[in-house]
Amino acid sequence: MSDVAYILEGTADNFDRLVVENSKQGLVIADFWAPWVGPSLKQREILVDLANRYQGRFLLVSINTDEQKPLAERFGVRSLPSFKLFHLGEMVAEYHGVQAESDYPLIVEKYVQRQLDPISREAIAAWQGGEPEKALQLLAEAVVADPENLALPALMSKILMRQQRFRDAHALLSALPEQAQEAVEVRNLLAHLDIIVTAEDADEPALLLQRLETEPRDAETLYQLAAVHLVGDDLEPALDLLLEITRSHPDYRKGVARRSMRAVLDQLDAGDEQVMQYRRELYRLDY
Question: CA–CA separation, 241 vs 235, rounded Å?
Answer without folding.
Answer: 10
